[in-house]
């Protein structure tokens, strides 16, 4: 009888498909955790699996599909930045949580030198993993294009440019930065500076655009002397804040493009006798643990970093299961969390 278990034999994928009334590929997607299956279909397949006692043969399935059951998480940064910035740990936590109920192994790779980049390119070119999650991408990074060339499923955290061709998950950086600066202006601040991230990163460009848009809407004349690029590190925030105070000592507010840079800026303000928020209001971006533990508490733009990690993994699993010709592009909302620093 079709759809029933063979006497004395191990149930097959085809028998599960017949019992559930779906195709073999649909059963495979359910078993592999693909989100591209309706809840009703998923329940039917899971019921058939339970009734037949089907157990996936992981090794055979991976071999037949030319799969490795491994995903590479690539972060082109040093160990110092990886462990110093809460952004990375939150992203990794989200990715790990999403993959916990799958059979995928997560391989963390840091790229610090050209030699390491070349070695990674060879590793990926040999298709030693099923897909790649790439975090902290710079505009000139050749890795996303290499992944496209070798047809390796990949998802970026953020984008290299407005017209990104690789699937990505991002947050509303322009809107978040604009809300931060609108808040500062609304509190009566007249000379609002910004400490940006590295401007070869699209995320930093977007946060700078949001800053400029908010000033324009409020009728403030643009002043490039109030803009100081940095590098998303605490020391970078320190250096940038010192330069801003030297150049524009009258400034009364600073929007920092990350909480970590805001922590560095706060140190310099304290050293120079500037009170926060009485003399200088301060706002960050990320709403990380850094913001909650600062004194005073840091007003910050909350981006759902852990959810970004989860979504990256979800999109990549779907891409591994069946490449989407429309290239998924996900932008998550941000929210301004007000604290005592502003």
From TrEMBL:
Presence of the UniProt keyword Transcription in the record: yes
Coiled-coil residue spans: none
Family annotation (PROSITE patterns): HTH_LACI_2
Residues covered by region (Disordered): 1-21
InterPro entries to which the protein is assigned, alphabetical: HTH_LacI, LacI/GalR-like_sensor, Lambda_DNA-bd_dom_sf, Peripla_BP_I
Keywords: DNA-binding, Transcription, Transcription regulation
Ranges for domain HTH lacI-type: 11-65
Keyword Chloroplast recorded: no
PANTHER family: HTH-TYPE TRANSCRIPTIONAL REGULATOR GALS, LACI-RELATED TRANSCRIPTIONAL REPRESSOR
Name the record gives this protein: LacI family transcriptional regulator
Phylogenetic lineage: Bacteria, Bacillati, Actinomycetota, Actinomycetes, Kitasatosporales
């Amino acid at each position: 009888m079709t759809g029933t278990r063979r006497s004395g034999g191990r149930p097959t994928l085809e028998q599960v498909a017949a019992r559930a009334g779906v195709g073999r590929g649909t059963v495979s997607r359910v078993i592999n955790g693909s989100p591209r299956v309706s809840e009703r279909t998923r329940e039917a397949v899971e019921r058939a699996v339970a009734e037949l006692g089907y157990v996936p043969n992981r090794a055979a399935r991976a071999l037949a599909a030319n799969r490795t059951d491994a995903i590479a998480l690539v972060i082109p940064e040093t160990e110092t930045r990886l462990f110093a910035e809460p952004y990375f740990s939150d992203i990794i936590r989200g990715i790990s949580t999403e993959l916990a109920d799958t059979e995928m192994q997560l391989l963390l790779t840091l790229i610090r030198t050209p030699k390491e980049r070349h070695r990674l390119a060879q590793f990926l070119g040999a298709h030693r993993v099923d897909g790649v999650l790439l975090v902290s991408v710079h505009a000139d990074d050749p890795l996303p294009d290499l992944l496209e060339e070798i047809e390796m499923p990949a998802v970026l955290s953020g984008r290299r440019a407005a017209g990104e061709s690789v699937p990505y998950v991002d947050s509303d950086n322009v809107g978040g930065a604009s809300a931060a600066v609108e808040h500062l202006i609304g509190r009566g601040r007249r000379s609002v500076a910004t400490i940006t991230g590295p401007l070869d990163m699209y995320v930093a460009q977007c946060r700078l655009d949001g800053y400029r848009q908010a000033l324009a809407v409020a009728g403030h004349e643009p002043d490039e002397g109030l803009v100081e690029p940095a590098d998303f590190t605490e020391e970078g925030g320190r250096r940038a804040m010192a330069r801003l105070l030297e150049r524009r000592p009258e400034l009364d507010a600073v929007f920092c493009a990350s909480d970590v840079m805001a922590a560095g800026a706060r140190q310099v303000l304290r050293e120079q006798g500037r009170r926060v928020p009485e003399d200088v209001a301060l706002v960050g971006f990320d709403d990380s643990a850094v913001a909650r533990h600062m004194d005073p508490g840091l007003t910050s733009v909350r981006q759902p970093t852990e959810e970004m990690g989860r979504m990256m993994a979800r999109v990549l699993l779907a891409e591994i299961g069946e490449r989407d010709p429309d290239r998924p592009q996900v932008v998550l909302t941000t929210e301004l969390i007000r604290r005592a620093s502003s």
